[in-house]
Amino acid sequence: MSEPISLYNSMSRAVEPLRPLAPPRVSLYVCGPTIYNYGHIGNFRTYVAVDLLRRTLTHFGYEVDHVMQFTDVDDKTIRGARENGVPLKQFTSQFREAFLEDAKTLNIEIPERTPNATDHIPRMVELIATLVDKGAAYASDDGSVYFRIAAFPKYGCLSHLDLENLVAGARVNQDEYEKEGVGDFVLWKKWTVADGDVGWDSPWGKGRPGWHIECSALSMEYLGEEIDIHGGGTDLRFPHHENEIAQSEAATGHTFVRSWFHVEHLLVDGQKMSKSLGNMYTVRDVLARGYTGRELRYALLSGAHYSKNLNFTWQGMDDAKTAVARIDEWRRLVRNLSPAALDEPPLLQLAADCLNDFNAALRHDLNANKALGVLFNFISTTNAGLHRGQYLPREIKAIDLVWTAVDAVLGLGDVTESSVPAEVQSLAEQRAAARKAKDFAASDTLRKQIEALGWKVKDTPKGQELTAA
Ligand code: AMP
Ligand code: ZN
């Protein structure tokens, strides 16, 4: 049985109860990355927020059918392939793999389907042909095909555009443009020399699809003409999502998306990320500074509600490290405790309250911060009893059940050896070998190196134990 949940719908600009078309199924389409480079942590803020949405829906009993495409043909990917002197497919596939690896680092669940745009060109051509047949698109004398926004009176409904001042017949050939530059937008781009060997045949000659058409075509192909939720970063609201609505609804004559989910941007030290400011970080850059994927996930989840800007700072990463270490320490206590039969404290009630409060926080538009607050309250309350070895076996089990339910949504993962960075793990192994050989000077040096990377090593009868400092 699925339970009710409310989400902010950026079309209506209100928090609304989710009403899926065919519950418990929820169809979810999320615009995927353009794979011409490594994703930056801003991109991953959006994908972590979508992952929170997906996991929350599952937690409340929905069956999520999630599709995310990879944009593997556009100006940027074509330019990248040319500059590197490799075929487009070879160029983009390395960044597809890198994206999937980074998603794994952040414990992001991979959507049910992750098609590449270029594997579905005929479907896009078909959709464009339907739009031409219906008079909502036209082939221009420059050999490209454009969407005729005058044929779609609802145009602007998502971004609340005032179309009064538009110059009739103005056209935009770029995929990205500002509201001031709105006009008939491109669906099919005629081949030019800059495209090299990239191009497909179509009724309008050789060319390639514009960026917007792929999401309409793929969403309809995999999820049907009308879907429950469509998501992406806030910058996609205009023109991309506006154009998706126009293309899809002009073709089908009915609603394309029931609820729009937009994630606000990540800023770095209060500024927009940009290469020129030197503040554009990839997931790999963050790991190279000694943080783990779990810590980055925590920072992305906890920094701000998804509908607000998130300010990324290195201080924020240090705070995330401390918070994750606190969870890990609690988990270790729960795991290693031999329960003692003392007076029974009201732990079972406490566990039930924790889950209720956690659910309430998420049920109202995914309040991850509040949900984390509930978890940390539970950690503080139970820590004292855990330190005293006070809990009964069934209470320890209740704590474990709370954690399992909570972490299915938060996805922070349990403390395992693999959460220790490989570099620290390798130093620890060298230190164990040095101790075995009674080389205590080397062992001390290695301890210092481990500490410099933010880890503590403790010698226990079972061997070394590593904890985040
Ligand atoms: P792109 O690869 O440029 O198509 O972007 C992939 C996703 O990341 C899209 O949903 C964008 O809206 C989102 N995105 C881009 N920059 C940021 C940012 N600074 N913060 C959050 N999301 C972003
Ligand atoms: Zn899209």
Quick summary of this structure?
This protein has 469 residues and is α/β, with parallel strands linked by helices. The chain has helices spanning 41-59, 75-84, 88-105, 121-133, 211-223, 237-252, 283-288, 293-302, 314-336, 347-363, 368-387, 393-410, 422-436, 440-452, and strands at residues 6-9, 14-17, 25-30, 63-68, 137-139, 145-147, 171-172, 184-190, 207-209, 227-233, 257-263, 266-268, 310-312, 455-460, 463-468.
Descriptive keywords:
single chain; 469 residues; alpha/beta; Rossmann fold; Isoleucyl-tRNA Synthetase, Domain 1; 3 domains; five-stranded mixed beta sheet; four-stranded parallel beta sheet; 14 helices; 15 strands; globular; binds adenosine monophosphate; binds zinc ion
What does this structure look like?
By secondary structure, this protein is of the alpha/beta class. The protein contains 14 helices and 15 strands. The strands form five sheets. Strands 5, 6, 7, 8 and 9 form a five-stranded mixed sheet that branches. Strands 4-3-10-11 form a four-stranded parallel sheet, with helices on both faces. The model has no long low-confidence stretch (mean pLDDT 92). It binds adenosine monophosphate and zinc ion.
